[in-house]
Amino acid sequence: MRLRSPVLAALTTGAMLFTTACGGSAGSSEPASPSAPGPSALRTGLVTVTFWHGIGGAPGEALQAEIDKFNAANTGRIAVKVAFQGSYTSALAKYTSAIRDKSTPSIMVSNDITTGFIHDAGQTVPAQAMAAANPADLDLNKLRPAARNYYTAKGELLAVPLATSMPLLYVNDAILAQAGVDRSTLRTLDGVAAAARAINAAVPGVKGIVQPFDGWWFEQLTAAAGVAYCTPANGREPGGATAAALTSDAQRKAFGTMAKLYTDGVGLDVGTDGANGVKAFTTGKVAMMFNSSGSIGNLQKAGMQGYSTLPYPISGDRATSGALIGGAAMWVSRVGHSDAEQVASWKVISYLASAPVQERFSQASGYAPVNTDVDTSATEQAFLAREPNYATLSKQFAETPATPATAGCLSGAMPGIRTEVVAQMQKAFAGTITIDAALAAAETAATAKIQDYRRQAGL
C-alpha cells in the first residue's frame, strides 16, 4: 500500500521513541497481504540486492562472512551490497527517511521492537507470501516455533528471524554454594526470590539478584506468567491491540515478587543498562542476574569463571508460559523494488536462515540458531557439549511453547509503552508507590499510547 501521511507521522513518532532494548515487538492491522513473485521473476543477468543492518561487533563480522560466501557462490547472478548502519537506532532512522525518499533497501534487518514500524509502513512483502511463491527455498516449518511465533500476526509470518536472543538466569556458583542454595529450586520465580533472600542473608556485602529496569524485563515477567501484555490476544488478531493489560492477578504477583526484593534491599538497582548488571555480576557484588543470552559473550570477554546459566524462571503454567525472544529479523522490500530483486532478496534470506549458516553464525555470534535442523548437527552437539552455557540457551529456545503469551505484545506503540511502564516500575521498585498503584498507572498510560498511535496511524 501507499503510506498515508498520518501513518508515516505516527511511525516517525515511534522511531523517535525507539530504544535499543532487547525485546518487545510492534504492529497493527494490515488489511491484506500483497502477492509475492515466484522463481520465474529471477531471469538471467545480475541482480543487485542492498542489505541494511545494525549488527555490530563479532556478530556483524560473522554476518558479513556469510554474505561473502553467498556472493562467491552466486557470481554473475546475485550481488549483495551490505550497508552497516552503526546501530539498530541509526538503521531505523535511515529507513524512515528512505521511505520518504523512496530509497529503501532490498532487505531490511531490524530488531524486534521495530516489527510494528516495518509492518505498518506497508513497504514489505510478508515472508509467508515469499515462501509460498518460492517453495524450493526456505521451509518455514524449519524455523524455531518460538521465533516464528514472535514475528507472526494473524497467522502470517511477517519477517524471517536472523539473530535471536533470550533472557537467562546467571548464577555465581561459589556464592550459591556458600549460601546453601539448591539450584533445582530456581526454575520458578518464587524459587529465585527465596534464593536471593537466602544469599543476601548468608553472604555479607552481596546482593541476591539484579535485573535491568528496561521495558523488556517487565514483558518477560508477563510472558513467564502466561498472560498477555496487551489486548485483545496480545495484538495478534485482526484489528490489532487496543489496550494494555498490566493488572492481572498473575502480573501483580510476579511484578510484586520482584519489586519486594528491591524494597527489602535484596535486589541491586543498576538502572536500565544491562551492562551495569554484567559489571556487578563479574565483580561479585550480586550472586544472580537476569540478563540477555548475549551476556554470555560479555562474561567470556571479561574472563569470568565459575558461573552457570539457567533457564529464565516461570511463574505460570509451563504449557502456556515462557520467555520472549529478542534479536533481529529480515524483511523483503516490495514498494519500489522489482520482482527479480524481491526473489533475489528471498534467496539471500533463505541462505542466511539455512541450517549450515545458522550453525556457523550462532557459534560465532552467541545468538541462538533459528533453524531446527541445526539440532541434528554433530558439530553443533559437540559445540554445546563444550559450551554448557550456550546449551542452556539452545534448550530453552527449543522448549519455549509458541503461545499468545510468548509471542509478546504486537503494537506500534511499544516504544511509548515501554517508557510509561519503566517509569512506574522504577517507582514501585524504589518503594515510593505500591506495585498495584504502579501497574494501574502504567496500564492507563500505556493504553493511552496505544490509542494515540492508532489515531495517528488511522487504524
UniProtKB/TrEMBL annotation:
Provide the leader sequence positions.
1-21
What organism is this sequence from? Dactylosporangium maewongense
Q: Which family does it belong to?
A: Belongs to the bacterial solute-binding protein 1 family.
The record's annotation in InterPro entries points to: SBP (IPR006059)
Q: Which UniProt keywords apply?
A: Signal, Transport
- A Pfam match is SBP_bac_8
Name of protein: ABC transporter substrate-binding protein
SUPFAM superfamilies (UniProt xref): Periplasmic binding protein-like II
